[in-house]
């Protein structure tokens, strides 16, 4: 399956039972809600997916289960966030073996690689696999920026096809378009900059709050891409207080609490994370409840 790097691609949460095992019942409920809302792909094992706490066997189960649920309607993509090139190459091999159709790749973890090392890392992994790749450019959280000069070198690898743009610099979308044209698809990776990025030429949105509000997220993206800007802005303004729950160190707990409120998830996280408590929990619940009270009626965003 080729990947159209566009539209909304949820970075889904991983569901856990009270016994800290994979909760595939609630996981399936959420994935089906995403598909029904019209998302363009499913991304597993990102930050929201609590990837650093997952075993290799759990990643295998999640990929295989998602492939089964989506029934080839949309691609299944898994994040690669490894410490060594060797481990990243092996992760890519296993992803293909388990049935994933694409990869999202972070630079090396822990060690702060320089530009040359980072480019070589990406190239070696890309050259080891036929799977299409989206580079995850998030220097704010992960400490390494994939610059335009680095992307120019990575353009040699045909299967490096997209960039998840999370620098928080909205003008970077224009810089990429000016330099590379359509060589790379661009997907915004910051919920609070998504509409702005799409209006500046981004192809899509790797979203977080979509985990709890799939229809609203896809509606914003579809309306904006169809030129119905006022309609998109109206929904986006309603959504912004909720979207700000994504730009937090507790984004996983925040978004899982929102999933509970919309009936497509649970609060269970894997330790050392703990569910929200006390005043922090009350503050987040107040934002979620206010959003639910004023939840907009959506237009027919699937048929624009």
From TrEMBL:
Keywords on record: Lyase
Residues involved in pyruvate binding: 206
Keyword Lyase assigned: yes
UniProt keyword annotation of Aminoacyl-tRNA synthetase present: no
SMART domains for the chain: DHDPS
Family: Belongs to the DapA family.
PANTHER family associated with the record: DIHYDRODIPICOLINATE SYNTHASE
Protein name per UniProt: 4-hydroxy-tetrahydrodipicolinate synthase
Organism, as annotated: Lutibacter oceani
């Amino acid at each position: 399956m080729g990947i159209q790097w566009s539209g909304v691609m949820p970075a889904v949460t991983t569901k856990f039972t009270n016994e800290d095992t994979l909760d595939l019942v609630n996981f399936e409920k959420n994935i089906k809600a995403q598909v029904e809302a019209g998302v363009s792909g499913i991304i597993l094992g990102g930050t929201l997916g609590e990837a650093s706490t997952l075993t290799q066997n759990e990643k295998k189960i999640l990929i295989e289960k998602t492939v089964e649920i989506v029934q080839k309607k949309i691609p299944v993509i898994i994040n690669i966030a490894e410490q060594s090139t060797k481990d990243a190459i092996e992760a890519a091999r296993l992803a293909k073996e388990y049935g994933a159709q694409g990869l999202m790749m972070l630079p090396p973890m822990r060690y702060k690689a320089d530009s040359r090392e980072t480019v070589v890392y990406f190239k070696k992994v890309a050259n080891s696999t036929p799977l299409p790749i989206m580079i995850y450019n998030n220097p704010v959280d992960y400490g390494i920026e994939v610059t335009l000069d680095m992307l120019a070198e990575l353009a040699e690898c045909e299967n490096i096809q997209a960039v998840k743009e999370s620098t928080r610099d909205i003008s970077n979308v224009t810089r990429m378009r000016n330099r590379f044209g359509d060589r790379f698809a661009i997907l915004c990776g910051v919920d609070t900059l998504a509409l702005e990025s799409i209006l500046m030429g981004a192809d899509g949105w790797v979203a977080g709050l979509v985990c709890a509000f799939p229809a609203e997220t896809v509606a914003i993206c579809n309306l904006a891409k169809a030129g119905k800007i006022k309609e998109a802005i109206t929904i986006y303004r309603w959504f912004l207080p909720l979207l700000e729950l994504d730009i937090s160190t507790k984004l996983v707990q925040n978004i899982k609490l929102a999933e509970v409120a919309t009936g497509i998830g649970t609060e269970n996280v894997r330790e050392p994370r703990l569910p929200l408590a006390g005043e922090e929990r009350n503050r987040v619940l107040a934002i979620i409840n206010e959003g639910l009270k004023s939840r907009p009626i959506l237009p027919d965003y699937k048929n624009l």
